[in-house]
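Exam revision sheet. Question 4 asks you to relate a sequence to its structure. Input first:
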Amino acid sequence: MSTEIKAPVFPESVAEGTVATWHKQPGEACSRDELIVDIETDKVVLEVVAPADGVIEEILKGEGDTVESGEVVGKFKEGAAGESKPAAKDEGSKEEDNKEEASEKPAEETAKSSGEAILSPAARKLAEENNINPEAVEGTGKDGRVTKEDVQNHVDAGKSSGSASAPTAKPAGDMPQVDIGSGERPEKRVPMTRLRASIAKRLVNAQQTAAMLTTFNEVNMGPVMELRKQYKESFEKRHGVKLGFMSFFTKAATEALKRFPAVNASIDGNDMVYHGYQDIGIAVSSDRGLVVPVLRDTDALGLAGIEKKIVEYGTKAKEGKLGIDEMTGGTFTITNGGIFGSLISTPILNPPQTAILGMHKIQERPMAVNGKVEIQPMMYLALSYDHRMIDGKEAVQFLVAIKEMLEDPARILLDV
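Answer key, structure tokens:
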């Protein structure tokens, strides 16, 4: 029985998507609930699985094609056995097919005979973007085909070994000869992914529509670092997760948001919406771009609960498995450029939120302490805010409140 393979029903905020990767090809056997195609939207990658045991009968939307919510992308034949070769055709077309086969040899067979790797379009694009030699990637797909996941795993393995930035060397005999004349400067044009295009649109919109202003301060991270050092091992042993700095910032921000409701608000047309809860988005860098999963009701979460959620979201972001519901509805955002070495920056608002906190690199600097110069681990903090909603006084006091709680962590527990 033939059934339609449809794109998932997109949320109202998502107009359309793009076919990212077909994991199965026509005639290839599939097991029930096995991943067959990825649909990329401007927020997440949605997975479509096989409805039953059978084979892919036909692909109607190829990789890179635009699809709408619920649109048919292919056909699936339930209960059929996988075929290693295309189905036999009637006698009248055999002679014509023989001519076509003689003149148009499949790309896969050509690649096999020349010893080259067989890549899907998505895998080839990812390999080119990361300067990866396809022949160095072990293919796990049908007939040794290199899938997008194979390339991504190769990239991740290279990063963990510290060698991802350098292209994989090919044997001298296989090194392609590229002739570039003197004075020529090579370029590569790569279309934006839907996520990158969405990020660009939102950031430009934030700068054009909001009266954005940034206030700065600095915090002595010594007390938090000492507390973390003292309880790091016992915390990890008890809760099964490492104690990081982000949980302290999240709790400090939560307490500060309760004191300054305007910072925890949003603008909807001519209305100002004040939220009686704290849903804090944590900006996470992924291979697809910056995503902001949301920690719900942070007031009810302890440090361990926050750390576990951050690890969970970080893993999902890396694997491209974050759901749309996990990235919508935040009331405030924290972004940490310090993990990349940023000393100070101006974060851009995440609409419709009215404020965003930027963390930066911890750096030892000489500071005046009780009339004496001491070396202290300092971090610059930046709070960008929408001046239409938040006055400068509130913004400064909000940032000072965070600074005071981090320099005396007991304030976070005592709410003072």
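Marking note for examiners. Residues 83-114, 161-181 have pLDDT under 50 and may be disordered.
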